[in-house]
Amino acid sequence: MWFWANVTGSFLEEDHSFNLDEVSVPEIMQILTLILQIAILLVIVLLHVAYATYFERKIIGHMQVRMGPMLVGYHGLLQPIADGIKSFFKEDVVPAQADKPLFLFAPVICLVTMLTSLAVIPFAKGWVLADINIGLLFIFAMSSLASYGVILAGWASNSKYTFLGGMRSMAQVISYEIPLGLSLVGVMMLSGSLNLTAIVNSQGNSFSSMYLFPQIIGFFVFFLAMLAETNRVPFDLPEAETELVSGYITEYSGMRYALFFMAEYIGMMVMASIGTTCFLGGWNGPFEVPFFPPLWFILKVYGFIFFFIWIRATLPRYRYDQLMALGWKLLIPLALLNIFLTGLFKILVH
Amino acid sequence: MKVHYKPKRNLLETIFQVEILQGMALTLRKLFSPAITRQYPQEKPPMFPGFRGQHALVRDSLTRDSKCVACMRCATVCPSRCIQISYDEDETHKRIINKYTIEVLRCVFCGYCVEVCPVGAITMTELFEYATYDRDTVFFDKEALLDNWDAFIAKTGKDPAYVNPLMRPRGIFESSLPAAKRLKVPEDWTIEGQYVGPKARPSMVGLPTPHTEKANG
Lengths: 350, 217
What we know:
The complex is a heterodimer of chains A (350) and B (217).
Chain A: H1 3-13, H2 25-63, H3 79-89, H4 100-117, H5 135-156, H6 160-191, H7 196-202, H8 216-229, H9 254-279, H10 295-314, H11 320-349
Helix pairs in contact in A: 1-2, 2-3, 2-9, 2-10, 3-9, 4-5, 4-9, 5-6, 5-9, 6-8, 6-11, 8-9, 8-11, 9-10
Chain B: H1 11-16, H2 18-31, E1 55-57, H3 73-77, E2 83-89, E3 95-103, H4 112-116, E4 122-124, E5 139-140, H5 142-156, H6 210-216
């Protein structure tokens, strides 16, 4: 898999103004390889998403002293595939009063932005589709755009529950995007880069040099803001099922519902990947795995996802004003304090 | 009554959100405890004595017919009026049943018909999985009820003379019950209004007897 870095690196460095007459055969090959890589990544990530739902149902089931899915396949192992096939063949209902083009397009916005974020995540040394220098900024931009899809879905459905869900999502994203960004400023200051590969490299290879330890406040803020950004319990107000039926996805059915679901899980994975790269040392682990370098990365990401699920099985939802108070009165000051302390530390050390 | 509030959290507990951590510890512990789920269609629930399931007419082993004497008590006591009986009399005034139907969709499964039956003809078996897509299969006539009994005996392997002794009318002492209902029940079995044991008398349980009532006027 050495070619991941080589191909993408050279592809980005070269001046590639596409003039059809001048496109040479190697360039076409490069583009085709890139498309193949994207396809492989997409398939692997979607399979992980499918089994993340299984993982979640099983973990929550056992935490609630139930068993979770048991019937389709051995211990329900084929359940995600059955769910996928079912949602694919279900009728796609569009409400008569809905804004049809927006209604149909909103889940696509959600999913595409989330999938685009995957391009900049380094799964292992050199295993990154686009090793760009503004990786973190790119991911922030994309996760904000994903909430644009949520808001549009809520608005276009023309129903009060979806509209309330969309409005809540808007307010929540505005409140929590700020602490999310600020909490990573400390990491940027320590590593001196926005490139995710560079951030991992600057953390070194040992356990104690992970940014988790110098940036423990930043990690705390990041973790809470991450929960809120991905609309997970206890911040799942946009789809609060006890109050808003299921919030912004109330009117969706079939495949479009599944698209929102996939977007949510890919969002979880992207946020977990950022947490892994920025605080837990990315793909570095106790020892090098031969043949499959991203193993530690994947284990760490699944550790994060287990935390997401664990919290979902334990905590009730925050009230709306509590959500706002936590974001504005606790997380933003804490993140600012963290930046101040990090800066002070850097001045004193150097 | 004095209300005991939880002691107020101190600053350290507030900062580290001790209660959230306690809750998380609980869910993590439960993750490794065995599930209490019963995988129903494969794993049947345990049956308890006195379970009120599908209705059946007991098939008498001598006559190969029902024990019913058409006394109409079950139809009279039935609160949902789901039992319909009609009968003729032969020259010795013995009642011969023409029709005995139970409309299960109206039945409330109170079990009064079983309690009140003086000969133990109607019972409620332990079968409960007979949901269908049409009404006719759960409208039981006499033959269907007798077949229910055969199916129950075949399925559970119970003694064909089985009568559930717990289905007895309440408020009546065992000595006053008809012979078919005077069956041995566990001594520790208690239900409101049930007097257990052949020796039970009104005076023994502190109830007025005809004598005391006469004395009080």
